[in-house]
Amino acid sequence: MMVTINDTTLRDGEQTPGVAFTAEEKIVLAKALDEIGVQEIEVGIPAMGAEEIEVIQAISSIGLSARLIVWGRMCELDIDAANSCHVDFVNLSVPVSDIHLKHKLRRDRNWVLEQIRHCVPLALDSGMEVCIGCEDASRADMDFLLTVLETAQLAGARRFRFADTLGLLDPFQTRDRIRLLCGSADIEIEMHAHNDLGLATANTLAAINAGASHVNTTVNGLGERAGNAPLEEVVMGLRHLHAIEAGIDTQLLFHISQLVAKFSGRRVAPNKSIVGSAVFTHESGIHIDGLLKNAINYEGFSPTELGRTHSTVLGKHSGSSAVLDAYSKLGIALSRDEVRGIIDRIRTYAMKTKHNPSEEELARFYLESAFSLAPLS
Known about the structure:
The chain is an alpha/beta fold and 377 residues long.
């Protein structure tokens, strides 16, 4: 099965409240996404104005291997703006749920179909391929959504984007809906998942399992509200759950995660899957004992896949194996009696300070234990 990653860090990711990339940062990120093997990059929204168009043109001029896509509304104004960007592909977005049509646009379903019939040929005449982006598709009537799909195909669209705009679906609903769409038309189906219920990655994988050929991601899961499906999670999930390679150099995922964190001003949580600073760090005595015997006991995949290594720290839950290992790395061979005394000191320190002890503190604990010095104050 072939899956195309269409990363939208530079578009939907930048729509994260408070995030605004500079022109230079967007160019650096576009190059980085291209370098790690992302096949398609959604680079921006031309209708925002001349400055945005200039940045998109600059990215287009540097000769990336990735296909560049711009985002616009289903209207002539946005098509004209997209046409000035020198890209090959435009996503034309239109609401498809009755909720959005009634309460946001005050339009009906026929208006959606008329806009598709009118706008898709205009974009095609401009030399761009077209994706129909169906906003709030997860709350749309499925019979109407199938009509939208048929209309999009007849109008000449190459792709149909199913947007779970509010992140309301679960993987089972996603699979059923994407499978129905894939079986009802002969154009590419793309999944755009949001993470409001923490299911964006699961829904993206479910969509691929159901036949979606393309998926949207963002680095670190940036995006509006709770964000989008994280690139790093989708790529590693595909590899380890479905034996599907997405063509991404996973050795560079941690690097691009740090780059996006820096440019966005959004810190990556230490326990963030795949790219968090602590996800290959172990403290529990049982875990470290098993890890020292064989890493596969407590690592579902090797951190070397990401160019990383695992580490162990000492804390309240540490056991004797972890303490012996930590001190051996300091060149100190402990007796079993010394281990018991040091474990007590480590646990007291961790509970009082809420931190793991440093090498200097471990050395102090050893001296206190060896020479029966006063306990920590």
